[in-house]
Amino acid sequence: MGFAILSIYPMVMSAKFALFEDDAEIRRTELPIDYSGISETEQTGGQLSAVTSAITEWLGKIKPPDAVIGGAPLPSRLPSGIYVIDDALKKYPRNINKGAMLALRVARGYSSLPLVLVSLSKCEVDAIYKISGMRGMMFGGRSRIIRIRSAIRAVSGQMGMSPERCSVVAAYLGNGFSICSQSEGRVRDFTDSLERGAFSEGHTGSLPATAVVRMAYSGMWSKADLLKNVYESGGLSSYFRDAGLNEIISMTRDGDAYASMILRAMINQLAAELSAHAAALYGKVDAFVLLGKHAMNEFFVSLLKDKISWICDKIMIHKVEDELSILAGAALRYLRGEESLVIRGHSSK
Length: 349
Description:
The chain is an alpha/beta fold. The strands form three sheets. The chain has a six-stranded mixed beta sheet, sandwiched between helices. A five-stranded mixed beta sheet has the order 9-8-7-10-11, with helices on both faces. It has a two-stranded antiparallel sheet with strand order 12-13.
């Protein structure tokens, strides 16, 4: 008999759930959740009870999970790794995120092992890469970090190296771009197009500061409009409305000079960002790792390779897994004894 694992991944107004038996996914669902009713101190009213009841009904008579594992898109102050959610961990309320609270409550209903995967510690990224040009403003952003670190783990194994020995620059290339440089098992820098770097399909990336200030005080835009332009309607969307990257590439290959110019601008910015991450590793890059839907586009990747292969000619494409599969894989490694827990900063079986 294999291990039954329930993965939980919180979204903005909902949470995704998937049941696995070892590596095989059995079923999945998504449930709406009002997170305002879930606090770090577990004073949750009836919200988590309702979620637990819904999960119990959804699972039906299937074998109860051996472990329930949660993950969250927000970083924690804990060192990255796999944790059992216990009283010792709960003494540090800032470390208890939504994914952990959901996993703990659901696991209690089944007497299952409650786990949480911490993918990036707030203290892990080197401080110098968070500093902006204005005191009081710090760079942040942690989009797709679970997927990126999973890809680094997989690629380092393909190269016959442990993640702790590998110096890698990894880029998630989807609707947004997220880039991570990692060495000695630590994330050195992390950027995404929500805040800085290259513009993507829907995100603006870095913007000229004075132009943003003028736009904000022009009287033509509300705060909500500006935020929507940055988070949803920026990047390619601001130049071509509903056309995505694949359409822009088709237009470029058909001889559209304007589409070609915008595409080349995106490639230049993306290559510059990858080069900056290589600098964070002092130029010692074992591989570039590309993942996400646009990493599967040969034309796009070929343009990017022309710009970055001088740094490192090993450019690896990784077929991305979703967060629920990655969480289940982490729980399975622990249950099989292949990976240790992290307890207050120390590894332990």
